[in-house]
Request: fold
Amino acid sequence: MSHVRRAAVAGTWYPDNPARLVGELDAHLAKAVVSQDEPPRAIIAPHAGLTYSGPVAAYAYSAPLSVRPNAIVLVGPSHFVPFTGVSIWSRGAWETPLGQVQSDEDLARAIQDASDTIAQVEVAHTREHSLEMQLPFLAHLMPGVPIVPLVMGYQTRVTAFALGRAVADAVRATRKDVLLVASSDLSHYEDARVAAELDGVVLERVA
Reply:
């Protein structure tokens, strides 16, 4: 596996100019007011183009601003490569317009060792935007915090539970303070009424 994952959608889905990117991120964050009573251990953020997902993602990323985790575990779906299990990017760094974001190799190794469901499938990361769309916010708000990128193939119940157990076991074993970021889109194409009903089911289950 190559050591640096090159940005795939910088300049199209979000600005590749650092100053412009920070300006857009800050504009979204300025409008996102959230309660800081209890910093979350996990957030769910969308992965559409920044113009569309940024206003929503800003709320998610405003919630944990009062804490600085030791590492960030990123989980998102594979849009381009069908495969069974979960692909981990276990070493090196991810390129962003704001600089490289390093991988947490120790935590990644512990997660991979915890489950046979998790392997290294580099091609699953090459074009995938579900995780890349989280990096502008993370690089801007939590610079220097390493990541463990995980792309899910077929999102079966068995795979989801295996991944959950592996992450939990690895976090306990390494004793790291980890923020979990789940990258997810909800309704893209339904009308507002149907979208609210469908997304309401997801929100209820998460709660």
User: Anything to note?
Assistant: The chain has eight helices and nine strands. The mean pLDDT is 94. The longest helix spans residues 157-174.
